[in-house]
């Protein structure tokens, strides 16, 4: 998390096995191997150069531009070059579109509501004020057959994990059951994007969503009565068990 004073300014997505959700830049690079260690005694992230390669790099906070930058030394040109800058676009700023809203880079307007949700304040939305975010567009009844279920949405930077719960061994179907059994649970997904076990569950509103090439699948809880297929972007939608 990058802070500006007491406010969150930028947040990477959570670690999902291959990298950080919503941050595809390192993925596929031929220079480094990423590693996340999470045990009962310690948690840390590291990266190491692949054997036979070399790179001189520095990461720092540029207080003039209010960004975190990574620069790389290019020997042939005898100078530093930018490799990564965050926030990198308008959707990289924390919670641009409010709860249950998602940000679309290089799109006007930048914000939209998840399928099954609508702006909480249409007047605010029309004036490009997205701070109030979105709410369910249809009446929702928790744990009532035909009124409660999950919709699978692909390509999302996963929400802020401040109010989340993790089990590294739980299967995805058990993760769904656990979420369904708690009316405060609003979404779930697998912990490891490369396959295998693991469960992440979110409680309350979902914050800081964006479409991303490095995004994952998120199963969002919503009313089933409002299901339709007019999503303005090519996002995969799949109904789950009710």
Question: Overview of this structure, please?
Answer:
The structure is a single chain. By secondary structure, this protein is mainly β. The chain has two helices and 18 strands. It has helices at residues 122-126, 172-180, and strands at 2-4, 7-10, 32-38, 43-49, 57-62, 67-74, 79-86, 101-103, 111-113, 117-119, 134-136, 149-157, 164-167, 185-190, 199-203, 209-211, 216-222, 237-239. The radius of gyration is 19 Å and the shape is globular. The two termini are 36 Å apart.
Give a brief description.
The chain is built from 2 helices and 18 strands. By secondary structure, the chain is mainly beta.
Question: How would the blueprint of this fold be written?
Answer:
Elements (H helix, E strand, L loop, with lengths): L1 E3 L2 E4 L21 E7 L4 E7 L7 E6 L4 E8 L4 E8 L14 E3 L7 E3 L3 E3 L2 H5 L7 E3 L12 E9 L6 E4 L4 H9 L4 E6 L8 E5 L5 E3 L4 E7 L14 E3 L3
Parallel strand pairs: 8-16
Antiparallel strand pairs: 1-2, 3-4, 5-6, 6-7, 8-9, 10-11, 12-16, 12-17, 12-18, 13-15, 14-15, 14-17
- Contiguous low-pLDDT stretches (5 residues minimum) are 226-242
Share of residues in helices: under 10%
Radius of gyration equals 19 Å
The overall average pLDDT, rounded, is 85
Q: Order of helices and strands, N to C? A: EEEEEEEEEEHEEEHEEEEE
Shape: globular
Which structural category do the helix and sheet elements fall into? Answer: mainly beta
Instruction: Tell how many strands the DSSP assignment holds.
Output: 18
Beta-strand residue fraction: 35-45%
């Amino acid at each position: 998390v990058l802070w500006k004073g007491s406010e969150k300014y930028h947040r990477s997505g959570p670690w999902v096995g291959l990298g950080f959700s919503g941050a595809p830049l390192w993925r596929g690079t031929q220079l480094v191997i990423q590693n996340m260690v999470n045990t009962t005694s310690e948690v840390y992230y590291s990266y190491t150069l692949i054997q036979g390669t070399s790179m001189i790099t520095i990461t720092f906070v540029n207080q003039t531009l209010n960004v975190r930058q990574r620069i790389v030394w290019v020997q042939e040109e005898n100078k530093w070059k930018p490799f990564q800058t965050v926030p990198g676009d308008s959707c990289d700023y924390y919670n641009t579109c409010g709860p249950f809203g998602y940000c679309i880079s290089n799109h006007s307007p930048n914000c939209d509501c998840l399928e099954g949700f609508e702006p909480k304040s249409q007047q605010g939305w029309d004036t490009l004020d997205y701070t109030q975010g979105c709410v369910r567009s249809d009446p929702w009844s928790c744990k009532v057959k035909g009124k409660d279920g999950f919709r699978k949405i692909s390509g999302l930077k996963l929400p802020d994990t401040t109010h989340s719960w993790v089990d590294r061994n739980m299967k995805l179907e058990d993760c769904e059951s656990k979420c369904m059994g708690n009316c405060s649970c609003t979404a779930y997904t697998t912990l490891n994007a490369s396959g295998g076990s693991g469960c992440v569950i979110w409680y309350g509103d979902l914050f800081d969503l964006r479409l991303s090439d490095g995004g994952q699948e998120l199963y969002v809880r919503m009313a089933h009565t409002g299901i339709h297929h007019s999503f303005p972007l090519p996002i995969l939608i799949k109904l789950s068990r009710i």
